[in-house]
Amino acid sequence: MRLRNKPWAVKLVHEHPESVIDRPDPSLKIDWSKRFADISRPLEIEVGPGKGKFITTMAEKYPEKNFVALELQMTAAGMILRTKLAKELSNLQILCGDAANIDAFFSAHIASKIYLNFSDPWPKTRHEKRRLTYKTFLQKYQTVLRANGQVEFKTDNAGLFAYSLQSMNNFGMNFDFVSVDLHNEKEEVLAANIETEYEHKFAAQGNPIYALHADFGVK
What we know:
Distance between the termini: 35 Å
Radius of gyration: 17 Å
Binding site for S-adenosyl-L-methionine: 46, 71, 98, 120
Number of helices: 8
Shape: globular
CATH superfamily of the domain at 38-44 and 95-215: Vaccinia Virus protein VP39
Pathway: tRNA modification; N(7)-methylguanine-tRNA biosynthesis
Region (Interaction with RNA): 126-131
Order of helices and strands: HEEHEHEHEHEHEHHE
Binding site for substrate: 124, 156, 196-199
Oligomer: single chain
Strand order of the largest sheet: 1-4-3-2-5-6-8-7
Structural class: alpha/beta
CATH class of the domain at 38-44 and 95-215: Alpha Beta
Strand content: 15-25%
Helix content: 25-40%
């Protein structure tokens, strides 16, 4: 969902180049060692974080990891930045760019996890290639992830979930966890789950949340 433009958000992003990389040149790899105090920490990426509840909560909960919020919309990037600054999350960077260039922004095998939370379902067949679980995106994730890296995916859209299962299966991915009703899973699963804004809203309405964790096996 596209957010309404907020001038303050754009202004905030421009004032903090140390925290936000704004639409970088895809032909140049980003040197993440200059963005994080300790690049040896596990790196986790959320693609399309929206307002950022999930990624900022993760960064706060796991200070021993580095996180990147890859977000196309400048307004959303500004909202994430506002929370980052308020909570002093030095282990979170914001990358304002297109997810289609994820393998250009990150070196090969640099990340341990990629999160896809409540992505646009692009339900029309002619838009299939835009879905973040389409095979070309999976190929890019495989390049960016380490050998034991995972893709974690959540959605409220049954059609997108079914499509993603099939797409990942056809790509040869291994499923470590699959749920068609995440919020009614075992207590240990619920304890580990960090909600997004959309997730909280949809679950409160009684809608099931679909989730899966998958990896690419040995490269």
